Amino acid sequence: MEDQPLFNLADYTLPSPDELDMTETKRQIKQLIAAYRFERSNNGMRREPPVTSTLSLVTASFSNQFHSTTEQAAMDNLKNSQAYSRYQFLHERMARGLEGIDYPFDADKRIRRKNVFVRKMIRGENRIKTMKELHIEKDAYNDDLNWACTQFAYEIGIHVWKNAKTE
Question: What is the separation, in whole angstroms, between the first and last Cα of the chain?
């Protein structure tokens, strides 16, 4: 009987930014974020999602304060609506993508990479401002952003390989 490995390490190998069409991959990320922001707004939330201090998305929740029966019915209708389902789907993908941004064995670099991604792709902050506040150089900023975009997109399956045939 042949010994079969428990897992194939190649299944856990992520592509590098050099293997992806970064322009197209970033365009896919921007489309996802635009759709997510639209659905947040469409469901009565602020367009820009709140981000925790650990750089995770805050899940929308309704407070447990007293509401009239009319308000409660409106909230129940919202929770059951198709628009809210679209929001939840996009929120789960965004949260999963953010959790996919990693730098194994170096927590500081992992946090910096996520921070660069959140500031640029979600908040739309200026590169210079981000570089000054994080005390990093242009090469480190670009490297972190490209790796973060690669990991985010790969985690949720919206990455675009180089030389991919477009229809």
Answer: 46
Residue 167 has pLDDT above 80, yes or no: no
What CA–CA distance (Å, rounded) separates 28 from 122?
Answer: 13
Q: What is the pLDDT of residues 126-139, one digit of tens each?
A: 999 999 999 999 99
* pLDDT tens string 34-75: 999 999 998 888 888 888 877 778 776 555 555 566 665 565
Helix 22-42, helix 138-156: angle, nearest 10: 70
CA angle 130, 158, 47 (to 5 degrees): 50
Report which of 139, 22, 148, 43 is spatially closest to residue 90, judged by C-alpha positions.
43
**Looking at the whole model, is its pTM more than 0.90?**
no
Domain positions in the chain are 20-48+75-156
DSSP alpha helix (H) spans, 65-136: 69-80, 82-99, 107-117, 127-134
Q: Is 57 helix (H, G, I), strand (E, B) or coil?
A: strand
Residue with tokens 């707004």: 41
